[in-house]
Design brief:
It contains 25 helices and no strands. It has about 500 residues and is mainly alpha-helical. α5 runs parallel beside α7 and α11 runs antiparallel to α12. It is globular and about 65 Å long. The two termini are about 35 Å apart.
Amino acid sequence: MTHALSDLCHSPMLVLAIFVLGIGGTFQYGFQISVLNSPSPYIKKFLNETWLMRYGAALEDWKLNLIWSFIISLYAVGGLIGALNAGHLAVKYGRKRCLLSNNFVAIAGGVMMGLSRRAQSFEMIMVGRFLYGINAGISLNVQTMYLGESAPKRLRGLVSMTVSTFLSTGKLSGQLLGLNEILGSEDLWPVLLAFSVVPALIQLVSLPFFPETPRYLLIDKGDQVQCEKAIQRLWGKGDYRSEIHDMVLEHAAIKGEKSKSVLELILEKSLRWQLLTVIVTFTTLQLCGINAIYLYSFDVFRAAGIPTHQVRYVALGTGLCEIFTSLFCGLLIESTGRRVLLLRGYWCMALVLGLLTVTIFLQDQLIWMSYCSMALIFAFIFFFGSGPAGVTAPLPGEIFNQACRPAAFVIGGSLNWMGLFIIGMIVPILVDTLDYLCFIIFLGFCFFSGVYVWFYFPETKGKTVLEITEDFQKMHSKTQTEAAETVENHKELQSVTSTKL
C-alpha cells in the first residue's frame, strides 16, 4: 500500500494528470447524477411559470412529472450517444485531443443551463442536460482509457481506481453545492446547473501540457521515440525498457491490425470470455441495487428518528463513505487483486441486501432495527465502493489489447448508460410496488455475478494484456492442448520481438 503511494509520488506529472483528467471527466459524470435532487422544487416551479406565461394555464401534475422525467432521462440518452462514439473518436483523434474537444460540449451545455431562466426556456435545460450526457459518455470511456494506457504496470490499478474516486467526489459535490445554503436556492439554481463549466475550463486549460498516452503513440501510431518521451514526462527519469518491451510485444501480437469495430469484437470467438466479462460486470454495476439503496436510505434515516428536514445532510455521509471506500480500494487493488475485490464485493453486497430486507421488515416491531438498517446501508456502499465501483470501469483496458480496447469501452460504456436509464425508470416503480422486497432482485444479480467471477475470471494483477489473454484462454480452452499451444505461441512472439529489440 505505502509502496504504491511512494511510487506514485515519484511521478508528479502522472499525479497531476490524474487530477486534470478526473476533474474534467468522471467528476462531471458524478456531479450531474446528483445535482438535480435538491433544487428540483425550484426548477419545477420554473417549468410551471414558463408554461403559464406561454399558454395561460398551469401545467397539470402528470405533464409536469412527464417533463421532469424527460429532463432527467435526457442525461442518460446523451451519455449513451457519447459512449457509442467515444471509441471511434479516441482512435481517430487520439485520447488527449478527444478529451480536449469534449470540454467544449460541457461548456455549451453549461451556457444553455445558465441562461435558461433569463431566456424563459425550459427547453434550454433539456438541451444542456443532453449535452452534459454526451460529455460524460465520452469522458467516462476516454479518461479511463488515457489513465490505463499512461500508468506503469505496477501502478495501473491504483491510477485506474481514481476514475471511481472522482465520480464519487462529483456525486458528493453535487449534493453539497445543491444545498439551499450554497447554490441550491431559488435564486441561484441556474448557477448550480451551469457549474460544470468550471471543471471543463480547468481541463481545457491544463490538458495541453500533458502528452498523448504512450501506448497510443507506440501501438496505434508506431512512434517509439514519442512514446519514450511521453513515458519520461509522465513517470519521471528512469529505465523503462521492460515496459516499452511489453508494448512492443503487444504491437507485434496485433500485427498492425486496425482497431476493431464493436461488431467485429462481438463476432471475435477468441475474445468471447473477455467480452462476456465486460457484459456481466458493467450490467451488474447498475443492477446491483446501489440506486435503490440511495433511494431507500431516506426512509431508513427517517425511521431511525432523523427529522425530515435534516435527512439530506445525513445523506451526505453516504457520499463521503463512497469516496473513502474508493480511495481504500485504490490502495488495496495492487496487493489484493481485481478478482478478490470483485468476489468480495458481489457476495458481501448480496449478504447485506439479504440482511437489509430482514431488518427493514422488523423495524416496525423493534425500534433498534432501524439503526441496523442504517449500518447495513453504509456497509453496502463500502463493499460497492471498494469492489465493483472501482474495478469495473478500467476493466476493458486491462483485458483487451490495443486493437480491441476502444470497442470494448464502447460496449461497457453503452451498457452502463442503458442500465442507468432503465434503473432510473424502474427503481421508483419497484420500490412502490415491492417495497423493500425489491432488494431480493438485486441480491440475485450480485450473487450470480460473484459466481461468474469465481469460475470464469482470472486475476489480472501485475500482468500484461498478453498474459491476461493467455490466462483467459487457458481457463476456457476445451483441451489442454489448446492451452499449451497458446503458451507456446506467446513464447515464440517474445523471442522474435526480443531479437528485434
